[in-house]
Amino acid sequence: MAEDLWHGCFDTFTRSAFRLEVQGVYREPKEKGPLLQFLAGLVPDLSYMDAWTAEVAAGVAAGRSYRRVRGLTDPLTDYLRFELSFTHLNVDAGEDVRLLPADETRELPREDFWLFDDQQVLTMRFGDNGLVGVDLVTDPERVSRYREIRDIAWRNAVPFREFTAT
Q1: Which domain holds residue 59?
Q2: pLDDT-derived band of residue 166, with 50, 70 and 90 as boundaries?
Q3: Are the CB atoms for 136 and 5 separated by under 8 Å?
Q4: What are phi and psi of 120, to 5 degrees?
Q5: Could you report the per-residue pLDDT of 87-99, keeping only the tens digit for each?
Q6: How far apart are CA 121 and CA 133, in angstroms?
Q7: Of 146, 135, 138, which is closest to residue 108 (Cα–Cα)?
Q8: What pairs with residue 135 in β-bridges?
Q9: Is the N-terminal amide bond of 34 cis, ω within 30° of 0?
Q10: Kindly report the CA angle at 52 between 48 and 57, in degrees rounded to 5?
């Protein structure tokens, strides 16, 4: 059911998809090997990213926008260092990725979500083995609150390329 919700939202949004990431660590099975490679000083196999970057590039070409705010920790976790090492792939595909300093991240709810077309939200639940579930939110008042969270995060976040240039 969660997979159907996930694909349904990504397949049907028409204008915008926004992701807020506030976890310092994600334990997605497909990332375990590449993370270990990165930590060992090797070039990680990032082929698992190919489907996502292709989807983003196709969506952007069709007029949809993909935006993401990634909350940081201080100090950065190993996982966040790993993610930052290949975030340029997201940006190169057309995703507008911004980074939120740790002091700003602490002010936000500790809940990751996707907001689609400003109308529906997929909240995300994580466990020891990555994503364990999603919940669809369509109630206008609740969706409005997620839009407010998005706006606060976006306003306080630094564009990825600007962040990496400093």
Answers
A1: 2-165
A2: confident
A3: yes
A4: -140, 150
A5: 999 999 999 999 9
A6: 13
A7: 146
A8: 123
A9: no
A10: 135
> What is the rounded CA–CA span in Å between residue 6 and residue 122?
8
**3-class DSSP assignment, residue 115:** strand
The model's pTM: 0.95
Residue 144 has which token pair?
Answer: 């409005």
Cα atoms in the Cβ-side hemisphere of radius 13 Å centred on 105: 22
CATH of the domain at 34: 3.30.870.10
Whether the Cβ atoms of residue 13 and residue 64 lie closer than 8 Å to each other: yes
Please classify residue 4 by burial: count the beta carbons closer than 10 Å to its beta carbon, then call 0-12 exposed, 13-18 middle and 19+ buried.
exposed
CA-based nearest residue to 94, from 24, 17, 8: 17
pLDDT tens-digit map of 103-162: 998 889 999 999 999 999 999 999 999 999 999 999 999 999 999 999 999 999 999 999
Taking 60 as the threshold, does the pLDDT of residue 1 lie above it? no
53-67 burial: b if 16+ Cβ within 10 Å, else e:
beebeebeeeebebb
Q: Phi-psi region for residue 134, left (φ > 0), alpha (ψ -120 to 50) or beta?
A: beta
What total of structural domains would you count in the chain?
A: 1
